Amino acid sequence: MTESPHPPISKAVIPAAGLGTRFLPATKATPKEMLPVVDKPAIQYVVEEAVSAGLHDVLMVTGRNKRPLEDHFDRNYELEEALSKKGDSARLARVQESSDLATMHYVRQGDPRGLGHAVLCAAPHVGREPFAVLLGDDLIDPRDPLLARMVEVQKQQGGSVVALMEVDPAQIHLYGCAAVEPTTDGDVVKVTGLVEKPDTADAPSNFAIIGRYVLDPGVFDILRQTEPGRGGEIQLTDALQQLAVDEKAGGPVHGVVFKGRRYDTGDRGDYLRAIVRLACEREDLGPDFRTWLRRYVTEEM
Ligand code: G1P
Predict the structure, then answer these.
(1) Which residue among 209, 230, 238 has the greatest number of ligand 1 atoms within 8 angstroms of its CB, and so is best to mutate?
(2) pTM here?
(3) Domains with residue ranges and CATH for the chain
(4) Is the minimum distance from the CB of 136 to ligand 1 under 6 angstroms?
(5) What is the DSSP letter of 267?
């Protein structure tokens, strides 16, 4: 049997070993990924996003104190039985939703040596297929699908694909930054170089990597050789820079330019904005909440 040049993508990797120090003390004993966005933990939105792009095999790269993540995506028989006895089928369905979503796998990162190292921990599970990486701090509005488009571009172009968003140049030092060239597809650019969190003056563009990647498995070979970079950590961006300049290693690298709604739930202000926005738009909570919010803004602010 001849191998298809671009095998279908079925695996998603979600690094979730971070300490969540920006949310202390809430994250002292609770993983930051479990903080609720309205009434669902942030991480569930991310897993749902992977699943809606057709990726049903999800590997979470976790660390110490992350057991609640495993419990959340597992069955909770006691709770299910209690709800079912009460005849509360709506809540029962909400409880079962997360355990029925995807086939979940977990691996521990051990030493927190950076995002590149976290991705490398996924190598034995992923094998030699292209795969997606979704960062838990970036929440992409489900109405603005991004990952599915990235998977499509990877199928057409091969190599690796990153998600890019134009940001205020003053903010580029918070992101991986891409030097890009246009392609014939309006929302797709060719990435010619990447640098992790550059100073504004040194940034090659204002195209920031937002936390979605579709990667050629060649990235693992590069990550094994990647020296610690910015912040003394093994940076995924540094490995991608290698892919961008070496097609044989797992390039080329393309970028899908995202213009939709993205929330950075790792930032307290943006986290609050995400909750307000998503709550306003919910059919069940939205009407009352919007009325209250309007009154609050006009009368009390
Ligand atoms: C990571 C990546 C960075 C990327 C960002 C997106 O940084 O290293 O390249 O732009 O995620 O959210 P972090 O925010 O984890 O420091």
Answers:
(1) 209
(2) 0.94
(3) 11-266 (3.90.550.10)
(4) no
(5) S
